[in-house]
Amino acid sequence: MPEIFALILLIVISLGAAVYAVFTKKTITALIASGIISLSASIIYLLMAAPDVAMTEATIGAGLTTVVFLYAMKHVKGGEDD
Amino acid sequence: MVEYAYIIFDIAYYISLIAILLSFIRFYLGPTAADRVVALDVITICGINLIIQIAMRAGRIVYVDVALVYALLSFLGVISVARYLEGGL
Amino acid sequence: MLFIASIISLLGALFLFLGSMGVLRMPDVYNRMQAGTKATTLGTMMTLLGIGLANTAWLPKILLLILFVLFTNPISSSALARAAHFSGIKLTDRSIRDNLADDKVEEQDA
Fold it and tell me: How many domains in chain A?
């Protein structure tokens, strides 16, 4: 039964971070919010007894997406906004 | 004594859940980007704890590998965000 | 043995809770970074050691995980503090001295 509380907390955190990433102004904070969404999605997959999917989600979400997005944000023309 | 041990493991599980919630509140109202990166770091460390406790409850050693992968890759993410804030990368 | 392991795990979880409370209540980025990294590293090590003592067959992988956390967490905290100082985030009003700013002024003079 304690897994239900972890599931509810992770769903609430994931939804809160997604809403924050939509309404924020700066791009770097939206990127950090996507890291939190990736972590909670990985633990939700683990609670659903799928460790291989959780490992793939951790690799893509925490490692690859952050580095590729930061590289693109460094090289794009324009400012921090829009 | 052994029957109290599982109750104490339950209490430790709930305390780690509360720790994740508190640092998420700091993520929501932190003024600068560095505050949010610190909150992400704390949430990741508490998430590694949560993964190991879920693994102990399920009794499968395969779940520990997910925590190993996450402990290495979150380090890479925090380092690259720090290099971006410093102006390098 | 199981009872001692659960007590160690509960102490680690209390350290995690205190570190997270420090992240929520400290007045500054650098204070938050200290509270959120040192207490959290100790709490993680104690919780994982308690679970590793509870079922002994898992102990090598959990010791490897403790070693990873012990190596990578202070390095990321140090890099993040350096980046926050160089990107111009002010210290709180109650802080007394700032040695890194003094070092930067001396490098510019020399």
Answer: 1
